[in-house]
Amino acid sequence: MKVFGMTCDDCVFTVSNGLKSAGATDVFVSLENGTASAVVDDSVLSPQDLLKIPVFGEKSHYKAQVRKVE
Amino acid sequence: MNLGEEYDLVIIGRGAAAFSAAIKASELTSGQASIAMIGYGPLGGTCVNVGCVPSKYIIEAANVHQAQINTRYPGLTGVRTEVDFPALMESLREAVLEERRTKYSEVLRSYANIKVFDGKATFTDRNTVSVIGENGRKTISGYNFIIATGSSAKVNKIQGLQEAGFLTSETVWDINTLPKTLAIIGGGFIGLELGQSFSRLGSSVKIIKEHSTVTAGIEPELGEALMASLSGEGIEFMTGRKVLRVLIRNGKKVVVTSASSGNEEIEADEILVASGRTPNVASLGLDHAGVKFSERGIAVNGSMMTSNPDIFAAGDVVDQKYKLETLAAREGAMVASNMFNHTDKSIPMDQIPWAVFTEPQFASVGYTETEYTLRFGKAESRTIPLESVPKARILRKNHGMFKIVTDAETQKVVGIHVVSPYAAEFIIEGVYAIKYGLTYNDIIESSHIFPTVAEGIKLAAQSFTRDISKMSCCME
Ligand SMILES: Cc1cc2nc3c(=O)[nH]c(=O)nc-3n(C[C@H](O)[C@H](O)[C@H](O)COP(=O)(O)OP(=O)(O)OC[C@H]3O[C@@H](n4cnc5c(N)ncnc54)[C@H](O)[C@@H]3O)c2cc1C
Fold this sequence. Notes:
The complex is a heterodimer of chains A (70) and B (476). With 70 residues, chain A is α+β, with helices and mostly antiparallel strands.
């Protein structure tokens, strides 16, 4: 996924934690590319659902968009 | 996806909706979303270049001229000053340039992530547009699209019109000679505003309308009040007339019209076509993008998403009731927010105010009585004349009306419609009333400033409960 709004390692930490606490595994967040990759169990959480988790919510500084689903 | 140049967001258009969307998207993504903004013509689109800004400029100038002639107060003698029309138009064009520079060109400098492209965009597939500009063809791809291509002046096919030549709201700003006689075909809000301005500056103005109402969809009694006021200062309304053809005779333009009473010819130095707006959908290749549209514009759901979930639309190009700068800008921002926040916010159209900047002004929000009755069964309404408002008497202005429409059962305000001085400045009271579900009693129980024209809203609310002609001044 493309992640907007990350500017430092703290951001990477916050976004990673946000994804993990939503149930994503194998989370990898790149500050340099502004991207994140993660594995989700589609029957529990779809990639689109991930976009609505609190760390990417309306009040959060970070925004995300799904770019590729494998 | 065809990877030409690739952006997080591609915005087609560079008017109010486009700018608002681009800036909001930049804010939401901390300037990290790469944005392509594609358009042609001057930056800023209709409003700043050929719409709100020049029209309000000429209106205000014409009002100053009128106030010099007709001071309204005994003891103050009016003076008829010379209108230097070329100088006025030059200053209008300078004002447009300045507004465009400060509010559009310079604003862009703050957003390094927004890249502006010159040219006409056409979808070649669901994620790609081909842009043809002066520098050739370019392919631009995007993950998200916003179509904000606006609308253009609608010019119906009329025999001889093209040959005779005519003005529209897009070209009228370039003229330097005040037409002695001006025939306006169509009289929506643009025709009325420009008609009054030119009339006040010295043109003899005839407005040719197919319908008998002043503009479609407004409260009929308010339309009549506005028309009476404009007629009273010399604008001639020729209603119920169909334009058959246009020709040139002895160097003059002649508009041949038909009515039940027979054909009539209207001779004029210049013709202004003001018959509405056409959404700019034609050359966008929307079929390639899976975006549904009609001649009324692009079809969207409440959150402004088109039939292709990656493509949103905003502004005049959308199939919707109003074509307004404020609405276009709000929709642009909301679309960007829905896109990056993954929300589905919408804008309730019954809370959108609109105005005609004639003198007196017309301003309206919410349902007309007929609309509400047709939709929900039963409405109640009260209408009061402008003369019952003390400030109007002080201003020595008496053409106007206030109308409040409420739900018959709940007494909640569902529409406020005004013809009066400054109506556009205070219609926001109606927006809040509708937005927050206020009743006419809530309006009565809110103190208004005395003496203001806005007090008319309170008096109209009071007229639901008593005979206002038997009230003393400012009575609660
Ligand atoms: C005379 C007049 C007076 C008005 N007065 C008022 C007023 O007082 N108050 C008010 O609220 N509203 C007013 N309006 C309405 C207001 O101007 C419009 O509602 C508003 O400007 C619409 O903005 P937009 O962004 O939707 O479209 P626009 O501003 O029209 O922008 C459309 C953009 O799309 C571009 N475009 C079109 N097709 C393509 C294509 N295929 N490829 C690339 N680019 C394309 C154009 O170049 C342009 O940049 C007035 C309009 C007129 C004409």
